[in-house]
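Example record used in the benchmark description.
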Amino acid sequence: MAPYESDDAVDAARVDAAGDEERHAARRKAARYAVPVAVVGVAAATIGLVPALAASGDPDLPRITAQQLIEKIAKSDVQQMSGTVRIDTDLGLPDLGGLANNLSSAAGKGSGDGSSADPRSQLTSLVSGTHTLRVAADGPEKQKLSLLESGSEYSLIHNGKNVWGYDSKTNDVYHGTSADSGKEHRAEPPATPKDFADQALKSVDGTTSVTVDGTERVAGRDAYKLLIKPRQSGTTVGAISIAVDAKTGTPLKFTLTPKSGGAAVLDVGFTQVSFAKPAASTFDFTPPKGAKVTEEKKDSAAHKHAPEPGRDFAKGMNGADVLGEGWTSIATFDTGAKGGLPTGSRGGDFGGFLGSLGEKVSGKFGKGTVFSTRLVNALITDDGKVYAGAVTKDALVKAANEGK
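Model output (structure tokens):
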């Protein structure tokens, strides 16, 4: 089907799509600017920024403008759903091998809990490859996410005040409470198609082209395709495609492709979805017999101060300055750490991993290392300053030179 009409009323569409600004402000800032220096963290944090799946046939739907489709997304308020999601991630990272397990272990130890069922210990598995998730939700107090692997399953359940994590491979159980553990441990999916569609739409401004690019079928449902493309040069983002359920306005699929071409960097979407109320038993959980149950440790010194990969280098992110605008925005902050990142033998396995990603650069700013993926690049100077964004290496070096 030929592309539908474009709609250049981008600013008006952005306002209409804003929704509850306060509720999403922190999440949006993190998705767009909070680029963890450790790159692995970058990938994990960016995973949500993607959904894509198989489509079959182009349904014949009534014409709709880009602004009308954005308004349809903004008005969508699906509280109950269940389905299966496939995540494909290709950031161009080298094979992590046993490093992912080491990082997971470090995350668990850093929390002071040390359980393989701790949600933080599961994030690195989504950095690369293909994964299948089962998701369900019944309002803001009940969500469940299950990560299906060969011969095992990891589940994260939020039911009222209780948050449970269960790793069937180790028979480990992690228990926390949503009232005390905060957003960090809530059992919401790291990113739903709607979460990240909202984030992408709130980034829309005069530097962006937004059009309706035909229709498709996703998970057996008719959907419109919203196409978002940067108008600026210097960004690594090629395009974002969002498949929007024609009936409910719910994003079913979100695909992010790089400017360099090739496969999508992040491709996540429903293979099956239902908007019926899930059975109440879906969110029930009782630790299996013989399981090791770890209670979340609250307000402990270990929980607050234990070292985590990349933590020291990302500590200034909350106060980061943003250079430029739109898709070529660059976040910059000073870590206070001199001597650059601990690459090579200085950093052990993690240092070797960073070294495989890094490229030495120099300029008016001095010397530093650029760490690259197919989407996000970060320059860490030897005097501890960080420049990061979905921009090219040359753009980072230029920003660092101008910062001098």
